[in-house]
Amino acid sequence: MTDTGTATTPTETAPTAPGAATGADERDVFVLAEDALLAVVRRVREDQWDLDVRAEVTTSDPGRAYALREIVGYHAYDDAWVPAMLAGRTMAEVGEDAHRGDLLGADPVGAFERIVEEAVAAARALEDLERTVHCSFGDFSARDYLWQAISFRALRAVEIARLIGADDRLVPELVEPLLAYMRLNAEQWRAWGVLGPELPAPDGATAQERLMALTGRRPR
Question: What are residue 67's phi and psi, to 5 degrees?
Answer without folding.
Answer: -85, 150
